UniProtKB/TrEMBL annotation:
InterPro entries to which the protein is assigned, alphabetical: RdCVF (IPR029520), Thioredoxin-like_fold (IPR012336), Thioredoxin-like_sf (IPR036249), Thioredoxin_domain (IPR013766)
Species of origin: Ibidorhyncha struthersii
Source taxon at top rank: Eukaryota
Domain annotation Thioredoxin: ranges: 1-137
Gene3D superfamilies assigned: Glutaredoxin (3.40.30.10)
One Pfam family matching this protein: Thioredoxin_8
Protein name as catalogued: NXNL1 protein
A GO biological process held by the record: photoreceptor cell maintenance
A single Gene Ontology CC term: mitochondrion
Length: 201
């Protein structure tokens, strides 16, 4: 409460409390403590990037998993933090550079070394204190365990307008979703025709 997060690559875009509430509601939250200069982080960050993309990008999944990531940097300068974030997914959020809240988070979650990924329920309870090894070992499959532990409400059961409210990421998003539905319908029709051709008279 009373804190802000910046949208990745959008210098002016600061999430308001209301937007943040919506962004974090009913989602598993990952706090990634890291640095673009730390050798261990440089080795782990591409793994985390791939993990996040495979769970949230429409190229891999029909709908984004209920997952939010916030980068809590240990970078020495704002330029270093910005450079690191430019190489990461646009959907990542970040604690603004120089915000004392970063230190509060490190203390609260007992983060002594980086990289560290703290996995939280929407209410802030810890699911995993540091999931770095779990992500390395299991990849995206470990998200299902976290989802169950977080007792998330499946978005299939949300009202259509609620789902639209949550999932609208940009002006073009409804168009992309419509295109996907049309592509899927065409695919199903093609499958149906193929089946008819294969069936003996």
């Amino acid at each position: 409460t009373g804190k802000v997060l910046t949208g990745n690559r959008e210098r002016d875009e600061v999430e308001t409390e209301r937007e943040l509430g919506r962004a974090l509601e009913n989602k598993v939250l990952l706090l990634y403590f890291g640095s673009g200069q730390c050798p261990r982080c440089r080795e782990f960050s591409p793994i985390l990037k791939d993990f996040f993309v495979r769970l949230t990008d429409e190229f891999y999944v029909e709908r984004a998993s209920q997952l939010v990531l916030v980068y809590v940097s240990r970078d020495e300068t704002e330029e270093q933090q910005s450079a690191f974030l430019r190489s990461m997914p646009k959907r990542w959020l970040a604690v603004p550079f120089g915000d004392a809240f970063k230190r509060e988070l490190e203390v609260r979650f007992a983060v002594s070394e980086v990289p560290a990924v703290v996995v939280l329920k929407p209410n802030g309870e810890v699911i995993v204190g540091n999931a770095v090894e779990e992500i390395r070992r299991m990849g995206p499959t470990c998200f299902r365990n976290w989802q169950e532990a977080a007792e998330l409400v499946d978005r299939n059961f949300l009202l259509a307008e609620d789902f639209d409210e949550w999932s609208r990421r940009s002006i073009t998003d409804p168009i992309r979703r419509l295109k996907y539905k049309l592509d899927k319908k065409t695919e199903e029709k093609d499958k149906g025709r193929k089946k008819e051709c294969e069936e003996p008279p």
